[in-house]
Amino acid sequence: MDYKVKDIGLAEQGRKQIEWAELHMPALMEVRKELVAKNSLKGLKISAVLHVTKETAALVRTLKQAGAEVALAGSNPLSTQDDVAAALAKDGIKVFAWKGESEDDYYQNMNIILSYNPDILMDDGGDLHALVHEKHSNLKIIGGTEETTTGVIRLKAMEEDNVLKYPVIAVNNAFTKYLFDNRVGTGQSAIDGIIRSTNVLIAGKVAVVVGYGWVGRGIAIRFRGMGARVIIVEANPLRALEAVMDGFDVMPMVKASKLGEIFVTATGNINAISKEHIQNMKDGAILANAGHFNVEIDVKGLGEIAKNVREIRPYLDEYTLANGRRIYLLAEGRLVNLAAAEGHPSEVMDLSFSNQALCVEYIYNNKEKLQKKVLNVPAEIDEKVAFLKLKGMNIEIEELTKEQKEYMKQWKYGT
User: Fold this and answer.
1) Where is the S-adenosyl-L-homocysteine hydrolase NAD binding domain (predicted)?
2) Known binding site for substrate: residues?
């Protein structure tokens, strides 16, 4: 079969979910109309490793309707929405994803979608790009895209090591991606995952946000908006200074670990919360991760220092330490917003996935011209996506006069 999902019988419910997402993704629907009218992607084969959500389904359906053949695998073992995966399979998408995959399943599914000999890769986290370079170097890839910060960092390392075999557009670096998806989307969805899995009150809690990049900023702002007292842990002096100027307390983890009640990691690095930090924590401390991979919290170390582990409710595990304190880990340390909730709202993914669709078309149309590097989203695509989003929100903006446009091009006028 050209699909493997948990239950194909969930397809009808999945279709309803996809319809709901598309209702809230007006920019992507405009992009779809444009690509379909031009049949822009006819004959193109795309293999994608993305979170299999209703929003991703809207993107995949757009690519297919524009003429592409798409094979899809999940980019996280716990992020797939099984009803959506079933709906895509019923609609003829080659989808290999289900919630609760093992690590072996995860990589096997990636190998399967690569067996369709894709022209373009779409990735979220960099695992697909890395797998191609390590084990499928025979594939003739003309280009790819990358959705997230973690993946872009990995691809830049590949570029610096002179091993990158094809151009990759860093969709993550578009203004219409990171300013909204990373900051606004994760800010809301990460806290949504925490609340769904615990139902604790945020107001009055001491929340520790580890990392003050765009994701950390969004989480911290929304924690504060819900009444939490927020501490930032940050290693970069510029970001730490920004957090201070934004009104947050800033300190190292060794101090924050003794004060926090809810901890959220958003660093892209390993062991941002180590077992030594965990041993400092208060009884009842809650640990969640909003970074792409499950390496930011030392889950293995937590297991080593626990004398007992039990599941309290879905995606909420209680670890009782030798000192009697109880630590609560959410979603096995994986992406809390996608494992314990539904990921970003459709409205924000409208921006990211409009970028993805337009960047695929751009790669296809410019395949002979692009260098084998990590490339930014072309400015005209970034601005087009912003314009389409505003249009979909029925918002009008100012238009410069001819005189104003000329003034901005010159250098002679002074005071």
Assistant:
1) 182-343
2) 53, 124, 147, 177, 181
